[in-house]
Amino acid sequence: MSQEAAITSFKKFQESWIDQLRNHLNHLRSVQNHHRNSATGDEERLREAVERVMEHFREYHRAKWATTEKDVIGVMATPWASALERSLHWVGGWRPTTLFHLVYTESSILFESRIVDILRGFRTGDLSDLSPSQFRVKFVKGRTVSELQCETVNEENAITDELSEWQDDASDLVMGTSSDPEQRIRRLAEIVHRTDDLRLRTITRVVELLSPLQQAEFLIAAAELRTGVAGWGTSHDRRRSSEV
């Protein structure tokens, strides 16, 4: 498959993947509502719905990794994304630490909306039970969440530095004076692979530290953010095109 064909194929995959994500999101909402409204709940069904969403994210990364092997420059350009999405990108995709901010925001909103019940001692098991102050001291496999966030920030910074070094030396590649252009392209692919691995590891780690109901709420928020930005950005690009 040619580089152009690989990018075209991934663009089609991306469109289909977003549509399927919306379907998984609707299913997860339905299972979550059933769990909330049921007298006994159905935690196993909730876990299965969460796993479906997580497998969908893993499928995306597998497809992107395969495309990166064929055309890393095309992947970095992200021609399938809207102008809005590209303006938010870091190394060809979303920044992993965004997920921590998302959890803090969601837990704060729910905490504030249910503060009366919480003060009365009622616990729902959702993200409202995990306020930002609680979140900073919760231990996950021997570490606090803040430590996990710091580790992610450090990895992000290391990747940013590595990409900056690659870009500083890119003039040789552009001018055609590089002694081994293929090796330089492979190095860029390694950086992108490392970045995507960090994205997948981060969302996996965050999900692992939450209860099933909290996992559902977090993934719903993450999916809504992903589909919302994609939808709004696409609509904006269409409006701009019609005005030209």
From TrEMBL:
GO terms for molecular function: sequence-specific DNA binding. One of its GO terms (biological process) is DNA-templated transcription. Residues 7-239 form the DOG1 domain. It comes from the Eukaryota. It holds the Pfam family DOG1. PANTHER family: DNA-BINDING PROTEIN-LIKE PROTEIN (PTHR46354:SF12), DOG1 DOMAIN-CONTAINING PROTEIN (PTHR46354). This is DOG1 domain-containing protein.
